Amino acid sequence: MNPSARARGVIAALVMTFLFGASFVGSKVALNDFTPFELVFLRFLVAAALFILAARWLKAEPIRREDRLRLLVLCIMEPGIYFYLEAMGLQRTQASTAAVLICTIPVYVLILEVVWLKYRFAPSEAFFILLSIAGIVVLVSSGGAGGLRGRMSGNIFILCGALAAAVYTIMVSGLLRRYSAVTITRAQSFYAILFYLPFFGFDLVTKGLPHASMRSLIAVLYLGVGCSFFAYLFLNISLTHLKPSVVSTFANLVPVVAAGLAVLILKEHLSWTQAGGAAVVILAVFLIARRKPGIDQKILPAVG
């Protein structure tokens, strides 16, 4: 694979990881004043508005008829199902617990690559993924993190959301061979608005207008600009250069980023055990990102 293209993929994945790293805190704040449907609709409404304003510079290709159904299914998986399940989960469990459970995405993706795409994988790849998850558990459950707690229903919502995100990762990697990252990300925003509009309207009718604090409004603005616009754009850019399981493994850096931001911004304490867990995650992601091939390399299908 072209080293510069691979470097672009890794850099895009790292930027995506940083932006998503603050999303759990932002969602938790926004959900104090907004319902899950309202939150997802508004964040993608912000993203869609940005794409309209930037249409002159961010050119998108027309979607071919034969790909429209696949794109619809893709957007139903994520942002559709995924963000609803994530929001429902965050209402019922701790943000730190949710961040750990989201780290099952690379495991799901690795399984889907083998079963669905018939990719081969080395045992060491699975080991590195499991190693990164072990580091996350140490990071979140040690010291002052409060352990892995939360209602079981919330944890199940997050785990089901992780599966939807894994299906999205596999599906979008195929579409990104025919369309640019801008095209796919832009389509996601508009599909999300259409998907969530009826539910958003129902919540407005039954619950009335939300009385949002400035803090919640800022959180929604960040989620729309930082995550639904930029983070997804960088996610799709990284998927044009790297295999899905490589990109999904970067998700395991999200709790590390969140912990680092808590130390820098909130002045929280990070114990040596937690720092060791973060180091294990970073090392595991570094090793698997170096080892796995890019998507433009020929990968032999599994036999039998």
Would you kindly provide a written description of the structure presented here, covering whatever features stand out?
The chain has 304 residues and is mostly helical. The protein is built from 13 helices and no strands. It has helices at 3-21, 23-30, 36-53, 65-92, 95-102, 105-115, 123-141, 152-175, 181-207, 214-239, 244-249, 254-265, 272-291.
Q: Average the pLDDT over all residues and give the rounded result.
A: 76
First-residue to last-residue Cα separation: 28 Å
Rg is 19 Å
Helix vs. strand class: mainly alpha
The poorly predicted ranges are 143-148, 292-304
Helix and strand sequence: HHHHHHHHHHHHH
What is the count of β-strands? Answer: 0
The 3D shape can be described as: globular
The helix tally amounts to 13
Strand content: under 5%
Largest sheet: none
Helix content: over 70%
